[in-house]
Write a structure and sequence with these properties.
By secondary structure, this protein is α/β, with parallel strands linked by helices. It has 6 helices and 8 strands; from the N terminus they run αβαββαβαββαβαβ. It folds into 2 domains: 107 residues, 3-Layer(aba) Sandwich (Rossmann fold); 58 residues, Transcription Regulator spoIIAA.
Length: 190
Amino acid sequence: MEDIEDLLIGSGSGSPPGFRLPLTSTIFIKNFGCSYNQSDSEYMDGQLSAFGYTLSDNPDEADLWLINTCTVKSPSQSSMDTIISKGKNLNKPLVVAGCVPQGSRDLKELEGISLDALDLPKVRKNKFVEILPINVGCLGACTYCKTKHARGHLGSYTIDSLVGRVRSVIADGVKETWLSSEDTGAYDNF
């Protein structure tokens, strides 16, 4: 599947590939995992809102479910499996983002689900708090953790880009910034 619009309006719409329509469909977003995943979900909320989607906390009223997953801890992946099964049973279109499809693309639970990477702007759950990822990935290779498989080798954002982001969110009224990553202590150590 190409994107969310394909799930909601079908690929026979006559629109060219990549064309975005400001649909008024309702989307339920469920987030699992760490503050980094929470930040990703806030970006998803922002982009979807900008395209005209209505966001809902009620999965029953939603036209599509977007599930932002975590593979680091077994309880999160187990909860993800449960919500995917529920969505499939209700014939809800499902989009799965986050660590699971990036790190475990061959899972049986993901068959028939849109797994496109979503690079989306942000709507904060708390308008006064910015969760700022300082890097992506991990240097470690812990046997109990799939972060490196899901997010890849460590790559840090530049100081200039981090400072620029902080300045822009302060202008938006943010009062607190949380630095977040999968391997915070290894910033710029690659």
